[in-house]
Amino acid sequence: KLHSDLDKGVGTVKYTLSGDGAGTVFTIDETTGDIHAIRSLDREEKPFYTLRAQAVDVDTKKPLEPESEFIIKVQDINDNEPKFLDGPYVASVPEMSPVGAYVLQVKATDADDPTYGNSARVVYSILQGQPYFSIDPKTGVIRTALPNMDREVKEQYQVLIQAKDMGGQLGGLAGTTTVNITLTDVNDNPPRFPKSIFHLKVPESSHVGSAIGRIRAVDPDFGKNAAIEYSIVPGDGGNLFEITTDENTQEGVIKLKKPLDFETKKAYTFKVEASNLHLDHRFHSVGPFKDTATVKINVLDMDEPPVFSKPVYTMEVYEDTPVGTIIGAVTAQDLDAGSSSVRYFIDWKNDGNSYFTIDATEGTIATNELLDRESTAQYNFSIIASKVSNPLLTSKVNVIINVLDVNEFPPEISVPYETSVCENAKPGQVIQTITAVDKDLSPSGQRFSFRLSPEASNKPNFTVHDYRNNTAGIETRRHGYSRRQQELHLLPVVIEDSSYPVQSSTNTMTIRVCRCDADGTILSCNVEAIFLPVGLSTGALIAILLCIVILLVIVVLYVALRRQKKKDTLMTSKEDIRDNVIHYDDEGGGEEDTQAFDIGALRNPKVIEDNKIRRDIKPDTLRFPRQRPPAEDNTDIRDFINQRLHENDVDPAAPPYDSLATYAYEGNGSVAESLSSIDSLTTEADQDYDYLSDWGPRFKILADMFGEEESYNPDKVT
């Protein structure tokens, strides 16, 4: 309520209201100044309002007092329940945890005013989930309420939590949320075999490394806590079997380490231990986290192939051994209970040459061809053994046959077979050291001896000195050798080996006498060099010869090019009956060119040309030039040309075909003027082509063409 001291109660004062919510939330009585709320208020929406009031004179409309400001505060009531903004909750706690183990803390919020009354005071409680869990009423912390909760018994728990305001008193508002709690696994259970004995049946033909059986221990734990490691207790099967863990199924897989043999042992018994990999020290008091079981394996008898007595057979035979000689045998047995006979044969896929044969019943191997160690020193092939009762069951073994050497080849001198000796050599000088080679192979190594042949022992020129280490030296036995007397010396050397039977050969050494300097360096070994000057070396002679050859090649090429050029300047084809234009292979340079052709006669007709021979043809015989009368003064050029044409026509030495000799000189200012036929007064109509018919069948078509033109000429009068 608002009231002014100036208000006498006679209705002269008017009250006005402005500010937050004026006219919408609050209204004022203009006469009495009473303020009323015109709608419901919500503290959580707006906790207070700031308003301004003023007293105004009704008549003058002027304020009687200054405007005053006041605040209307909304008083809270408990109209909001607590709410869990983060719910529902998910939590976990390890199994077997002690009482009071922390699980989770929940929190509820109340929109009411926490400073006024108990409207916002929240208290927590468990509506569902006891007696397993408890909650602190004030903090909302959830803890375990029972000891040793086992995940293997119950894993999931759902707890219903309530939050109530007004301190939990009667009439307070409440809100709820759900907490899903999971017990996580710990390794609190050892593995256990469901039975104490496992029986397995394994065929004796099982391959090494193959799985022959599976056993399983049960562990109720989960994840890595249920990981099991299997092992075989040392004993009966420790050497033949091994066990591994299947990571997906946690089963123990028993594998074979060595082959089984029913005939040797029919049953095996051993123990298998299963233990956890990841142990928890808190549960050691429960007992050992492992278990054992017995595995009994019965070996099943299978029909097996024969077994050879050796994995590989190695035999030896001398080369050139007669065909059919037995060199060894292989043996295979059927070890099954009902023993069967065995048959042998060679695997021909690997031994296509069939150098050997085998007895199918006894297994003896014999030669089938003559063997040559120098051709093939070792043979490697396979022999197959099969059971008579079941030929499909076979086994294979490798046989290696080494061919032993027989001393059949004599030793020979290794290269070189030719050596040289200086003319100024001295007695006892070693000019060559020789060695020997032998195609035979001796296991202990060959020993060779060297000596001169008997027919050469009396010649004092050279001797052979055996060094007793498979080498020998060729030594001189006289002072100096002459190339003029004898250039080549032949020295027969006998070489023997030490094998049985002893083989020997005579090898001829060629010794060439050479000219040497004082130091023994060879200068020349050719006979021709004897007759050459002493100061001219072999290199100089070769250089001189090369120069001579190069000069000869140059001369021959020059002559050939000259001949070819002369041939190209003349056309000598007898088949060509056309007019020939003689090509002089030169080009004129105008009036200043006086070398290409002598045109003085055209420029000056008074020039007298005597003793001129034709240049367009090559005369067969030399003849004297004809005497021609000198040209008269002021003779016309046409008469001069006609005179020359007449001379060529009656010349008996001229070739039988027309030859065009061009004497023309054409150009501006020429004395001879133009020689072109364009300005000729002779027309085509004046020509008579009847002579073409006399030229033979080769000109028949040409004669017919010009004959038709002449016959159809309208201007010609017949």
Describe the structure.
The protein is mainly beta and 718 residues long. Among the domains are: 13-73, Cadherins (Immunoglobulin-like, Sandwich), CATH 2.60.40.60; 83-184, Immunoglobulin-like; 197-300, Cadherins (Immunoglobulin-like, Sandwich); 307-404, Immunoglobulin-like, CATH 2.60.40; 412-524, Immunoglobulin-like (Sandwich), CATH 2.60.40.60. The radius of gyration is 69 Å and the shape is flat. The N and C termini lie far apart (164 Å). Residues 529-534, 571-579, 605-618, 620-627, 630-634 and 712-718 have low confidence and may be disordered. Keywords: Calcium, Cell adhesion, Cell membrane, Cleavage on pair of basic residues, Glycoprotein, Membrane, Metal-binding, Phosphoprotein, Repeat, Signal, Transmembrane, Transmembrane helix. Residues 4-84, 85-193, 194-308, 309-413, 413-531 form the Cadherin domain. InterPro entries: Cadherin, Cadherin-like_dom, Cadherin-like_sf, Cadherin_CS, Cadherin_Y-type_LIR, Catenin-bd_sf.
